[in-house]
Amino acid sequence: MELLKQRILKDGQVLGNDILKVDSFLNHQMDVQLFNEMGKEFFRLFAHKNVTKILTIESSGIGIACIAAQYFNVPVVFAKKTEAKNLDSHTYLAEVFSFTKGKTYSVRVSQKYINPNDIVLIIDDFLANGKAALGLADIVGQAGAQVAGIGIAIEKGFQDGGKLLREKGLEVQSLAIVQSMQNGKISFSE
Ligand code: 5GP
User: Fold this and answer.
1) 104, 132 in Cβ contact below 8 A?
2) Which of 1, 20, 56, 162 has a Cα-to-Cα distance from 42 of 20 to 30 A?
3) pTM attached to this predicted model
4) Nearest ligand 1 atom, CA 21
5) Are the C-beta atoms of 45 and 51 separated by less than 8 Å?
6) 149-164 pLDDT tens trace
């Protein structure tokens, strides 16, 4: 998606060799007009899948998922990273290794909000090694529901996540695929 690629080139900052910081429009301040274009694009890519629900993970996926959901006209469920007293006791649980934090954490979704009839589109902001998306796909499986596909804003194509998920037969559609970030210079794969 050209608009997103141009924005990454204009405002993205490369940290070290493998972290892309996009706080000014995606991960901290959010450009809602850009999100709207991203939502439209996700709908174009997945409209034929009869999606009944969008699943994402807190926190950065939520904004993108909510705007996309307005096109699909379906609810958004987000996996919670913290255990809280007000979360239902019957939950689906997956362990996720966080690439950015370097540690494993649990994510939970109440069993009320995904059921076996659901066709679930997973949406997230970044795809690195694929652990977050795999955790979400696992939760969909635990619910007996079907994964419609995985919609990612920014895939880092030089990490393994995309390959891993596609090899599992999951349809992954990324709006921008960063091929390399060598010496702070960002290039895209297509
Ligand atoms: P994965 O689970 O695919 O290894 O990593 C994806 C998750 O890590 C995303 O939910 C995102 O929050 C975070 N992440 C991974 N790489 C980056 C990055 O380069 N920049 C930012 N801002 N977040 C990232």
Assistant:
1) no
2) 20
3) 0.97
4) 22
5) no
6) 999 999 999 999 999 9
